[in-house]
What we know:
Elements: E1 13-17, E2 20-26, E3 32-34, E4 42-48, H1 53-69, E5 74-80, H2 90-96, E6 103-104, H3 109-114, E7 120-121, E8 123-127, E9 133-138, H4 143-154, E10 165-167, E11 172-176, E12 183-187, E13 195-196
Amino acid sequence: MKGRLAALCLVGVVALASDRAMLSLPDLSGTPQLLEQYRGRVVVLNFWATWCVPCREEMPLLGNIQKRYEPKGVVVIGASADDESTQTQIPLFIQKLKITFPVWKGATTEHMERLGLGTGLPTTAIIGPDGQIAFRILSIIERKALTERLDWLLGDQKTPAPVALIDGITGKETHAHEHGKEEHTHGGIGMEGASTVPS
């Protein structure tokens, strides 16, 4: 079926059924980690790489978000798109930027595309407790945009949801409406310096 992939959660495999996020990647010790293990929690899944300058810029914000929202059940996960030629730089990158959230390695453009995140870095999926992708941010994360979406997911959700997609690469914001998932695009934020993951 188009848009759906039935797959086992093996290392390096992503499945997207509707907007359900499934991902399995190894952590830095090589132990497979499943996104499914965080079911019931809100997850900020950020794709980045050591060579990506915009990614480096947003790391302090992600660290602060982890500290601030962890007591509320939120977890930040950094999925590194470094290939074998740069993966050895990940530990130094983590140490230098004082990253304390979980970091997984081996992410590829295929993983990102199947989660509806395109091929540019940085990019982020915000996943609700039900395992569904609630929001996508295709650009550097801005604090207000991220906290608004986290607060909405953690709240009673009686107010209208923030836009489902912030696309800083093309400069559009997309509203996804419950009635038939109708989408409207509006002029949005622009971003320079997006990095593309090598194929």
